[in-house]
TrEMBL record:
CDD domains: AAT_like. Keywords: Aminotransferase, Pyridoxal phosphate, Transferase. SUPFAM superfamilies: PLP-dependent transferases. GO terms for molecular function: pyridoxal phosphate binding; transaminase activity. Belongs to the class-I pyridoxal-phosphate-dependent aminotransferase family. It comes from Corallococcus coralloides. The lineage of its organism: Bacteria, Pseudomonadati, Myxococcota, Myxococcia, Myxococcales. This is Class I aminotransferase. One of its GO terms (biological process) is amino acid metabolic process. Residues 46-418 form the Aminotransferase class I/classII large domain.
Amino acid sequence: MALDLTSLPRPSRDDTTVSTMVRGLVGSEILRIAAEIRELVAKGNKVCNLTVGDFNPKEYPIPDGLRDQIGAALQGGETNYPPSDGVLDLRQAVQRFYERSLGLKYPLEGITIAGGARPIIYAIFRAVLDPGDVVVYPVPSWNNNHYAHMLGAKSVVVTTDAAAGFMPTLAQLEPHLSSARLLCLCSPLNPTGTMLDPEALRAICQRIVEENRAREGRGQKPLILMYDHIYWVLTFGKKHVTPVELVPEMAPYTVFVDGISKAFAATGVRVGWGVGAPTLISRMRDVLGHVGAWAPKAEQVATARYLDDVPATEAFLTTMRQRVDQRLEALYKGFQRMKDAGLPVEAIAPQGAIYLTVRFDVVGKDGLATNDAIRKRLLEKARFAVVPFQAFGLQEDTGWFRLSVGATSVAEIEEAMPRVEATVREILGAR
């Protein structure tokens, strides 16, 4: 007879069996919202789900070549531990990929592989920061607050605004750079789908170089830039730029976060990489080696082979961009029509990634006092599921939301837009 342990205590915020850090770690707001959507769907409701930064394989299958190479690698017995910094063939393939696509040729010692981009971000925080060090990041942004909390760092939050596409400017960052150890930037940005202007990024990078020259003279540790560009191949009408191409002197201070998750709709394949100065990458490799956050070996071997098939990757990315752009444009045009009709909605034209930034300017109307109240009304009345910017660190209830097109079709979007318009009109018409 099995020992019945079902009466064990359930999780609690004041549980003394866990650390203070874990007790203070906030769970994912997006996962909480996802639970509500699952409940609605289970009751038979059809929901236009724009919440998850993931891909529905029916809408966005991974490349045929990548899928076939994974199978071939498994059949070939590639099932043992990979090297702690990644399979050599993959590191070489990433090196060639960056050289031909970004014009950046890094040494192999400056490339490390992990099980997706999240372990790379964790390794950067862990390799750079000591407890109490200052990490500066703009909001809205994805998860920097949680990583800073886990490392015991001091967060300095820079609130951005819609006028600049929710991207930070040097003027906003400048007061905090002299005390910072790590600056976190992301372009194209999750959650907004907007991109850093090249001149704005150049100015930020020039300031970092100046700061680090001064620190070197004082014998202080440099300011490091984490540049998350996991969405860089998914851009629409704007050219992606990197800190190092704009200001080559940034090379010792920049670490790139990247991988196949978004570019190749392969979020579950779990292959990511960090690229930067070998001095820092080698320490990240050591961290990842102890954590064991390696990408599976078969997937690494397969990704190496696929990245080197340039015609196949370019053809896939062309199709991928078209699919994402079609959905983003369907949303954007739908909201533009509402705005032109005089409704209080606003959308920022899509620039990159898989996200659209939308504002429902109805706070204070029909009892809707918060973004979360608006979200719930849209879900209940329009079966339209979105994520408020509070999930990305922006505190004010100003009606801004992230809409992700990874899990839906153009037809579902077009079917949902009349429901959204009707809901907004109902809110405005309430007495």
